[in-house]
Amino acid sequence: MLAVGAVALLWVGFIQWRIAALPDEKLAPHDVGVVLGAALWQTTPSPALKERLDRAVELYQAGVIPRIIVSGGYDRADSLLTEAEGMRNYLVDKGVPSESIYLENEARSTLQNMLFSQTIMREHGWTSAVIVTHRYHAVRALDMARFLGYDSPSVSPMESSVLSMAWHKGRETLALTKWQWDKMRAAFGYRPIT
Description:
By secondary structure, the chain is α/β, with parallel strands linked by helices. It has a domain at 29-160: Rossmann fold. It is built from six helices and seven strands, in the order αβββαβαβαβαβα. It has helices spanning 2-21, 47-61, 83-93, 110-124, 135-148, 165-186, and strands at residues 32-36, 40-41, 44-45, 68-71, 101-104, 129-134, 154-158. A five-stranded parallel beta sheet has the order 5-4-1-6-7, sandwiched between helices. The chain has a two-stranded antiparallel sheet with strand order 2-3. A hairpin with a 2-residue loop joins β2 (40-41) and β3 (44-45). It is globular and about 55 Å long. It starts with a helix and ends in an 8-residue tail after the last helix.
């Protein structure tokens, strides 16, 4: 039992190290930015989602991305808008032209965010993407993009000033562990998306 605990502790330490070690790279221009959804509060992006959207606006204004895919379906059965619709409205209010924003309205998980956004990219002939999300989430999102065959994806991770990092990093440890398990199972024919 002690050995299992030691292995689990090492695994958690390894995941937290991967999250902390993710470099902040200087980004060259890319075809598109992909903003991963989080929660809407009624029709307004949550404070954490606003952090992601504000980063996308910075990248757009700096000329790193000429267009933005906003990815996210309905949060709950009683949602008034999809996450993507709420994100589009916020970006337009921040000065991003609506014709530069592409909606992915179906995703309900990070893997679906990446897969469904990739479909939009292929439809338009875009090959390079910057994934916009929080640092704690960026390692898994980037790994998923690579798994799905994105062409040299980049990530623009940011820290959060509004989220409880202890809770989110703990949750992400479990989510990243599940993702690694799903990848191993995929080698034997398991499809992680249904």
